[in-house]
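Tokens in:
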């Protein structure tokens, strides 16, 4: 499971509750993980509950960009 996620493709985002591009996902992810400022992603600055968004994003499989999916194979 999870190992065939296509990070390059558009996908449903539980934060925006709609399908977003991989670019928007990446930007949002960086903002929600604290690397970029929230205000640097226009779409995110419109999300009301950022703390809740952070939680959702941290549990989203697409937030795992470094291939931590390996753990799921065993
Ligand atoms: S990683 Fe974050 S921004 Fe990307 S789809 Fe998941 S919840 Fe949305």
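Residues out:
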């Amino acid at each position: 499971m999870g190992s065939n996620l296509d990070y390059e493709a558009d996908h449903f985002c539980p934060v925006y509750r709609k399908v977003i591009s991989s670019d928007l996902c990446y930007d949002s992810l960086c903002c929600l993980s604290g690397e970029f400022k929230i205000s640097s992603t226009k779409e995110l600055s419109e999300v009301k509950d950022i703390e809740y968004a952070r939680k959702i994003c941290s549990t989203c499989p697409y937030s795992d960009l470094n291939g931590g999916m390996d753990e799921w194979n065993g």
